[in-house]
Design a protein that fits this description.
Length: 290
C-alpha cells in the first residue's frame, strides 16, 4: 500500500491542503492516519475517495451533499458528468486509481476504450499527458513504488509507440530534430510525446532514447546535423546537477538550438546558455512545435 502525503493529495486532486484539513474536520469521508511525528498520510483508498469527491465538487456538487452519498451513488454521479473536461478528468482519475491498485488489466482497457472512442492523438493530448503530469509529481517525491511506475509506464509507452508508428502528417517540413535523455534519466514518456508531436508536424526525428552519454550525443549531432536538439527532464537521480548538465552540454554543443522541457525545468531559476531554451508547460511545447 502507498502512503501519500497531504501535498501529494493536493497535487493529484487540485484541492488545497488547508481545504482538505477542513473537510477532515467537518465530514466523515476522510480519516488519514498519522506517523509517530504526527504527520498525516493517506492510503490508496483515501486517495481514490478524494479524487472522486474533488471532481464532483468541481462540477457543482456541494461537499455536504456528497458526504451523504455511498460509494455506488458517488460512482453513478461521476458517470453522469456531461462536461467534456469532466469526462477527461474522470478517466485520468480512474487511471490513477488503477495505478495505485496495480490493476493493469483495467488500466489498459481504459486506454483502449479511449483510443476506440477518440483516437490515439486525443488519448495522448487529453488523457495521457494530464495523467503523466500528475503522477510525475509522485515520481519526483518517490511516493509511488518503482514497480507501479514501471508497469504503468510500459503500457503507456506501447500506446505511444503505436501512435508514433501510425501518425501520418499532411505537413511537409525540412526540419530535423534529435531527441535524447541524459545519463541517469530513464523516463521516456515525455520525450516520446514530443516525438509524436514533431512527427505530426512533418519533422524528421532522430530518436536516441534514454540514458545517453554526452559523447554519444555529440557524435550523432556531428553526423546528422539536426536543426534542433530536444530533451525532457522528469526525475533524475538526487545527485543530478541541472546547472552542471547545461554547462557540459553547452561545452559539447553550442551551435545547435537546444530545447528542454519537463518538471525539473519549472523551478530552475538560474540563467541558461544562449542557444538553450526551457519549455515549462505543455502549451509552450506545442506552440513551439507548431
Amino acid at each position: 500500500m502507498n502512503a501519500f502525503t497531504i501535498k501529494d493529495i493536493e497535487n493529484l486532486s487540485g484541492v488545497k491542503a488547508h481545504t482538505i484539513r477542513i473537510w477532515e474536520q467537518r465530514y466523515s469521508f476522510l480519516k488519514p492516519q498519522r506517523t509517530g511525528t504526527n504527520i498525516r498520510y493517506y492510503s490508496n483508498e483515501e486517495l481514490k475517495i478524494i479524487l472522486n469527491i474533488a471532481l464532483l465538487n468541481k462540477y457543482g456538487y456541494k461537499i455536504s451533499h456528497i458526504d451523504k452519498l455511498d460509494f455506488l451513488e458517488i460512482n453513478q454521479k461521476l458517470l453522469l458528468l456531461s462536461h467534456h473536461q469532466a469526462k477527461q478528468e474522470r478517466v485520468v482519475n480512474e487511471l490513477i486509481s488503477c495505478m495505485v491498485d496495480l490493476d493493469l488489466d483495467t488500466f489498459e482497457e481504459l486506454l483502449d476504450l479511449q483510443i476506440h472512442a477518440t483516437g490515439i492523438e486525443k488519448l495522448i493530448t487529453e488523457i495521457l499527458f494530464p495523467f503523466l503530469e500528475k503522477i510525475g509529481l509522485l515520481w519526483v517525491t518517490n511516493n509511488i513504488n518503482p514497480a507501479q511506475e514501471h508497469l504503468v509506464t510500459n503500457l503507456i509507452r506501447q500506446k505511444l509507440l503505436v501512435g508514433i508508428e501510425y501518425s501520418v502528417s499532411q505537413i511537409k517540413s525540412n526540419k530535423t530534430a534529435l531527441l535524447f535523455l541524459p545519463e541517469g534519466e530513464y523516463h521516456e514518456l515525455g520525450l516520446l510525446y514530443v516525438y509524436f508531436l514533431l512527427k505530426n508536424q512533418g519533422v524528421k526525428v532522430f530518436y536516441l532514447g534514454a540514458d545517453v552519454p554526452l559523447a554519444d550525443l555529440d557524435f550523432i549531432v556531428k553526423a546528422k546535423k539536426p536543426d534542433y536538439i530536444y530533451t525532457h527532464l522528469t526525475a533524475l537521480a538526487h545527485n543530478f546537477n541541472v546547472e552542471k548538465f547545461l554547462h557540459n552540454l553547452h561545452s559539447k554543443i553550442n551551435h545547435v538550438p537546444v530545447l528542454i522541457s519537463g518538471p525539473l525545468t519549472v523551478n530552475y531559476k538560474k540563467s541558461v546558455p544562449a542557444n538553450f531554451e526551457f519549455k515549462k508547460s505543455l502549451k509552450e511545447v506545442k506552440d513551439f512545435i507548431s
